[in-house]
Structure formats: structure tokens, C-alpha cells
């Protein structure tokens, strides 16, 4: 790891580091369109809105908007229905999908073929539903059945840990609210410089 990466990991940015970072900002990148298919990493909960907006922009070969399918999870009770995706072990209550959309697997399905947790793509392959069962703080048993996938135009920096990306668009925001978040985001990319 070079001094630039070390400085970012330690939260100590020099003037030289800052000058390097400025060359990677949206206005400074000559071919920003090269990043149209890049994963966007957000520090905050902007991920869902970004994914839905990208889904709404999808067009077919005739430049017509692509229909969007809403897949609602099966749950055993209202509390399971309103539980967060994290509480349901990565299973979303409502999935919004369309032909050609980018998705990410949320579990290991077939390691030998690369269908692993975090794998991304838009190819159509059979994905079985998954059951998530958990107990809430009131000791009630909750369950959700859903496809273990999510839209992958964007994801949180936290959930990007473990991913290796050839390119990414990082939305850091005004300030780093968790120590090391910027480093985690930037270290996902194989070649920053």
C-alpha cells in the first residue's frame, strides 16, 4: 500500500493527497460517462433512492421504458413485514426488478459458478427464494421469504466491504461520520491512481 492509501486509512490527508483526490472528482474526470455502469457507494441511506431512480431509467432495445415488477415477500406477520432488510438477514420486503437491471446476490448459491454473496450482474439465472427466521426483542418468531437479491446500481459503503471493483463512484458527503469509511470505499477499487 502506497503512502496515499496509508494516509487515507489513517485519516491524515496531505495537500498532495488532496490534489490527487481533486483529480477524481466529478467535474475533473474527463470521461465521466465511463462511470455510467460503475457501482455507486454511499455513506448514508441514499442507496435505495438511487437504485430506484436507475431502475426507472431502464430502456429496452427500442428505447421504450422497461416495465418494473414488484415482488413482495411472504411473511408470517405484520412485524416481519415492516422489519428492516438487515433484521431479515438481507431479504427485502419489496423487490423492484426489471429485465436488464443490475442485481447483487445476497447469499452464496453456487460457488463453483461464481454465484456468491456480493456477485453482481444482469444475466438471468434461476435464483430460489430463501427463508429468513429470527426472534425480535419481544421474543416473537418472525419470518420472511424472498429472493436473496437486491438492486446493485448502488450500495452502502459498509455493505461494499469484501467487494473488489474495477471502478466505482464514491459519494462521501460533507464529512466522514464513521472513522475509516472513506478508506473502505476507496479501497474497493483495484487501481485508484
From TrEMBL:
This is ATP-dependent DNA helicase PIF1-like. The gene is LOC127751039. It comes from Frankliniella occidentalis. Gene3D superfamilies: P-loop containing nucleotide triphosphate hydrolases (3.40.50.300). PANTHER family: ATP-DEPENDENT DNA HELICASE.
Amino acid at each position: 500500500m502506497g503512502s496515499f492509501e496509508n494516509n487515507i486509512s489513517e485519516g491524515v490527508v496531505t495537500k498532495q493527497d488532496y490534489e490527487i483526490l481533486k483529480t477524481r472528482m466529478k467535474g475533473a474526470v474527463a470521461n465521466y460517462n465511463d462511470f455510467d455502469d460503475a457501482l455507486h457507494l454511499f455513506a448514508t441511506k441514499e442507496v435505495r433512492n438511487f437504485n430506484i431512480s436507475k431502475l426507472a431509467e431502464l430502456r429496452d432495445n427500442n428505447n421504450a421504458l422497461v416495465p418494473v415488477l414488484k415482488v413482495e415477500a411472504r411473511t408470517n406477520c405484520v412485524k416481519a413485514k415492516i422489519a428492516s432488510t438487515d433484521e431479515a438477514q438481507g431479504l427485502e420486503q419489496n423487490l423492484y426488478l426489471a429485465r436488464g437491471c443490475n442485481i447483487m446476490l445476497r447469499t452464496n448459491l453456487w460457488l463453483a459458478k461464481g454465484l456468491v454473496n456480493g456477485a453482481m450482474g444482469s444475466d438471468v439465472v434461476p435464483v430460489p427464494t430463501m427463508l429468513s427466521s429470527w426472534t425480535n426483542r419481544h421474543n416473537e418468531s418472525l419470518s420472511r421469504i424472498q429472493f436473496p437479491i437486491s438492486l446493485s446500481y448502488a450500495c452502502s459503503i459498509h455493505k461494499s466491504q469484501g467487494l473488489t471493483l474495477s471502478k466505482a463512484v464514491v459519494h462521501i458527503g460533507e464529512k466522514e461520520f464513521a472513522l475509516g469509511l472513506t478508506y473502505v470505499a476507496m479501497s474497493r477499487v483495484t487501481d485508484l491512481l
